[in-house]
Specification:
- One of its GO terms (cellular component) is plasma membrane.
- The chain is mainly alpha-helical.
- It has 2 domains: 187 residues, MFS general substrate transporter like domains (Growth Hormone, Chain: A), CATH 1.20.1250; 217 residues, MFS general substrate transporter like domains (Growth Hormone, Chain: A), CATH 1.20.1250.20.
- Helix content is 78%, strand content 0%.
- Helix 2 runs antiparallel to helix 9, helix 5 runs antiparallel to helix 7 and helix 12 crosses helix 15.
- The longest helix is centred in the last third of the chain and has 43 residues.
- It starts with a helix and ends in a 5-residue tail after the last helix.
């Protein structure tokens, strides 16, 4: 492995450590022991849930290939997963609001465990069922847990600003540190201990079972709108009306779909971008480097959200602009550095430049997650939170399915250009959201001022 990889990984690790150790009282928010206990319980559960997810990711394609399936058949399995998330996501989201978020979180554990069990079969139909179950579980992972957290946080009377602490720590741990450890642990099971490609899925089932036990023993139930008179269609209609009638919610959904669509497309593009001629690159080490970059971003986000200024709606404009520019690097290097058709033993100079740009993009991802969670907690109504959050994922899943189906139809530079444009659009939409939110705050402040001035007249 080239020293370049060690330098990038070591440099990022040093920066992350320095940022975490250098935090002072200005970068921290004073909380209570009751909140810290609540936060730590959620972080343990969330980390276990993400470990169950991260352990599977690097080995899904590899497992299918060992069963003898080709690229086309594997592609159909992946499309089934995203399609399942799109079709069933809104339904399970509405059920979570109606039947309870704790119950939906337990359902996630059971569904994903069943999906892991199907990986022991080499029959295509059973694997397809597993992908469908996995798609349903993904919808629950990205809606039920956050919805439960926000509702429970408010129900216990904790300050609204404290939510940002839980969000940033959840991303720092679940999408950063846990991802790195899961990748190393999976490598230990498959390569070092030679337990086979199914071993990470069995380990994931164990982590999910432990997390489910903690949920059942320590979480209380909360609901969106438990009204018995509302069926699923009524809930869908209510969520659609909320999105259509509130421009802030609609903008938030569009921003989320554009960014996550670009992010998931990047997942499929970074390998051919860094090794266009099949160069030998350390995929696992590069993945760990990306996750370390994400940790850097979440650490930065925690500092930003601990301050009253700049607001989330403000600094996210910069984040989207930087992420858009970072994905232009493969296009720029293609023009500035003559592409080689000869397979070399390691990553090219252009690939090294692109890797640095991709690390910047992953840092933006690390800022994005806690920040979008913060904005969702502010703008999405509680009674239909899970439903609306899964509504946001419909255009995302459609986009990813189209990309997967046509991944070989366009040059890689065109795909990166498309992602960069989407992120630039997200930047402009974020600017619009900032303007609307700022106007709303100004109007609320003016109304309070008028009420205060009128009080003496009423005495």
């Amino acid at each position: 492995m080239e020293i370049f990889y060690y330098l990038v990984f070591g440099g990022l690790g040093a920066v992350v450590a320095a940022m975490e150790l250098s935090k002072n009282n200005k970068d921290r928010i004073n909380t209570t022991p009751a909140f810290n206990s609540f936060k730590n319980n959620y972080l343990v559960v969330y980390s276990l849930m993400m470990a169950g997810d991260w352990l599977q990711g690097p080995y899904v394609y590899y497992l299918y290939s060992t069963y003898g399936f080709g690229k086309g058949e594997i592609g159909h399995l992946f499309i089934a997963g995203f399609g399942s998330s799109m079709l069933f996501g809104t339904i399970v989201g509405s059920l979570a609001d109606k039947q309870g978020r704790r119950r939906a979180s337990v359902t996630y554990c059971i569904t994903y465990i069943l999906s892991c069990i199907t990986k022991h079969s080499s029959q295509y139909r059973i694997l397809m069922v597993g992908r469908i179950l996995g798609g349903i579980a993904t919808s629950l992972l990205f809606s039920a847990f956050e919805s439960w957290l926000v509702a429970e946080h408010n129900k216990r009377g904790f300050e609204q600003q404290w939510l940002s602490i839980t969000f940033s720590k959840a991303i720092f741990l679940g999408n950063g540190l846990v991802a790195i450890i899961s990748g190393l642990f999976g490598n230990l099971l498959v390569d070092t201990l030679a337990l086979g490609p199914v071993a990470p899925f069995d380990a994931a089932s164990c982590f999910l079972a432990i997390g489910m036990a903690i949920i059942l023993s320590s979480w209380t139930e909360n609901y969106g709108d438990p009204s018995e008179s509302k069926d699923l269609l009524t809930q869908f209609r209510g969520a659609a009306v909320a999105i259509a009638s509130d421009e802030k919610i609609a903008l938030l959904g569009a921003i989320q779909s554009l960014f996550e669509g670009s992010m998931y497309t990047f997942v499929f593009l970074w390998t051919p971008a860094l090794s266009p001629n099949g160069e030998d690159i350390p995929h696992g080490f590069i993945f760990a480097t990306f996750m370390l970059s994400s940790m850097l971003g979440s650490s930065l986000a925690s500092r930003l959200m601990a301050q009253t200024s700049p607001r989330v709606e403000s600094y996210m404009q910069i984040v989207f602009a930087v992420s858009s520019a970072s994905l232009l690097l493969p296009i720029l290097t293609n023009f500035l550095v003559a592409p080689s058709k000869v397979r070399s033993g390691s990553m090219s100079f252009a690939g090294c430049i692109q890797l640095l740009g991709f690390c910047v993009f992953e840092s933006c991802v690390g800022v994005f997650w806690p920040s979008i969670m913060k904005m969702r907690s502010q703008y999405i109504p509680e009674e239909a939170r899970s439903t609306i959050m899964n509504f946001f994922r419909i255009p995302l899943n459609i986009f990813v399915c189209i990309v997967l189906y046509n991944v070989d139809a366009f040059p890689i530079t065109v795909m990166f250009s498309m992602c960069s444009i989407f992120l630039l659009v997200a930047c402009f939409l974020q600017r619009r959201l900032f303007a609307i939110a700022d106007k709303s705050k100004t109007e609320d402040w003016a109304m309070k001022e008028r009420d205060t001035e009128a009080e003496p007249l009423n005495i």
